[in-house]
Amino acid sequence: MTTCIFHARLAVLPLALAGAFPLFAQSQSNSLLSETVVTATRVAQPLSDLVADVTVVDRARIERSGATGVADVLARLPGVEISRNGGIGGTTSVFLRGGNSQHTAVYLDGVRLDAQSGSGGVAWESIPLAQIDRIEVLRGPAAAVYGSDAINGVIQLFTRRGEGPAAPYVGVGAGSHGLSKVEAGVSGSVGVDSAVDYSFGLANESSDGFNSQPLYLRKPADGVRNPDQDGYRSTSASARMGIQVNRSHRLDATVLASDMESQYDAFTYKPASPVDDTSRHELRTVGLNWHAQWTDAYSTRLSVTNSRSRYETTPSIYLTTTDLRGYLLQNELRFGPHLVTATLERREDELENTAVGPNRSRTQDAVALGYGFAQASHTVQLNVRHDDDSGFGGKTTGSAAYGYAITPKLRMTGSAGTAFRAPTLYQRFSDYGVSSLQPETSSNLEAGLRYTDGASSLGVVAYRNTVRNLITYVNGPGACASPYGCYDSVARAGYEGVTLSASYLLGHVNLTASVDFQNPEDLDTGKQLARRSRRHATLGADFHVGDWSLGAEMQASDKRFDTADNTTELPGYTLVNLSASTHLSRDVTFLARINNLTDKDYQTARTYANEGRTIYIGLKWAPQ
Question: pTM, whole model, 2 decimals?
Answer without folding.
Answer: 0.92
